[in-house]
Amino acid sequence: MNAPLTNMQTRDVEALLHPYTNAAQHRQVGAHIIAEGKGIHVYDERGREFIEGMSGLWCAGLGFGDEELADAAAAQLRKLPYYHLFAGRSHEPAIELAEMIKDLAPGMARVIFQSSGSEANDSQVKLAWFYNNARGRPEKKKIISRRKGYHGVTVAAASMTGLPYNHLDWDLPIDRFLHAGTPHHWREAEAGESEADFSARLAHELEEMIEREGPETVAAFIAEPIMGAGGVIVPPEGYFEAIRPVLDKHDVLMIADEVITGFARTGEWFGSDRFNVRPTSMSMAKQLTGGYAPLSAVAINQDMAEVIEAHTGEIGTLGHGFTYGGHPVGCATGVAALRIYKERRILDHVRSVEGVFQAKLRSYLDHPLVGEARGVGLIGALELAPDASGQTAFEPGGKVGAKLSAELAERGVILRNVGDSLAFCPPMIITEAEIEALFAPLEDALNVTESWAKAEDLL
């Protein structure tokens, strides 16, 4: 067995300010350096092996060290290492990838590239505003997202994000951004309320919000098909089917944030396909390149495309874009990733192992620490709670989840606690045997965490 992390010397990295890290604490403990990756595993600088159960940050759908992806990036670096898409210039990788996305994404007509999911969602806001200005509706600008939704960290994207730590002391959210209810039946439903009734209530509450604000002021509703960083929250039965007529009635755009759920993760090409979202536009990133190069994209439907393109003719240009948006290396990597997904039948593979993966998740429902197990495809979560009622939570929140995550890391599995939810998002190449290995240390880690929680008077 490898030496435990608690006995390892970690490196002090003074020059870096690490995202989503307690910097004061980090100065005391140092950084854990990941040095290499192969398949579903990563290796730290001391040679310790870990199953990467989160695909990094929900990204590496094809795992680590894929030679075909690396070769595609290297070949493009040698051929055309950089160019832009400004002022009518273009390059073949961007054109090819846009066509591939258009062919896969339901109802989409045009694609515009960025470098990150945050930039994609920021672009969604600007495009919605531009679209409504082009239609002569300058007041129709408010964006509705949801509590616990995650849409990124730029000023607009973080304003859409419905998580406190993305707002605290950042002076966010800014004006024009609103947050509707979280579609988490286990936590939020009223006593005896079915999933379908809960969905209907959330749709009614959304309509009340739109009417209260004034439909003439509401531009768009943005939602992840599955809420990722909010805890891998799967929508209840009939949720998007109840939401969509409300948006149609009030002429509100439906933005699907597919940054995590895109490209086979849910057992369909997009989460929108799995949950009948019917989006007006879509944001995508992460598995667009398998995480091998920074790239994101926004796809818009024909109506938005026609209105926006016509308006650029009136005012002279589309005054939006990024220096690295559509970077040729990122696009070439994306072309290779989408081709690999098809050639290696990754979608079929996800469907074939989904039952095993989801059954393993749900097999821990009897453990005293586990309140709920949820997920679809190769994404899921265990929510830790004092009981299974959905009415109680650990106080303070997050400590139990962090302890379990640390215990699993000691046992060679990297997962991510989102508060007291333990998130799973393994590379989509994972085999049934590797799924068994991913879950193998969980029972022991849960038991140790349970004993610790009792000693800490948390349970």
From TrEMBL:
Q: What is the lineage of its organism?
A: Bacteria, Pseudomonadati, Pseudomonadota, Alphaproteobacteria, Rhodobacterales
NCBIfam families, A to Z: PRK06105.1
* Name by which UniProt lists this protein: 4-aminobutyrate---pyruvate transaminase
Molecular function terms, GO-annotated:
adenosylmethionine-8-amino-7-oxononanoate transaminase activity; pyridoxal phosphate binding
- Which protein family is named in the record? Belongs to the class-III pyridoxal-phosphate-dependent aminotransferase family.
Q: Which UniProt keywords are present, listed alphabetically?
A: Aminotransferase, Pyridoxal phosphate, Pyruvate, Transferase
What are its GO biological-process terms?
Answer: biotin biosynthetic process; gamma-aminobutyric acid metabolic process
A family per Pfam: Aminotran_3
Gene3D superfamilies per UniProt = Aspartate Aminotransferase, domain 1, Type I PLP-dependent aspartate aminotransferase-like (Major domain)
UniProt xrefs under InterPro entries: Aminotrans_3, PyrdxlP-dep_Trfase, PyrdxlP-dep_Trfase_major, PyrdxlP-dep_Trfase_small
Output the superkingdom of the source species.
Answer: Bacteria
Cite the PANTHER family for this sequence.
Answer: ADENOSYLMETHIONINE-8-AMINO-7-OXONONANOATE AMINOTRANSFERASE
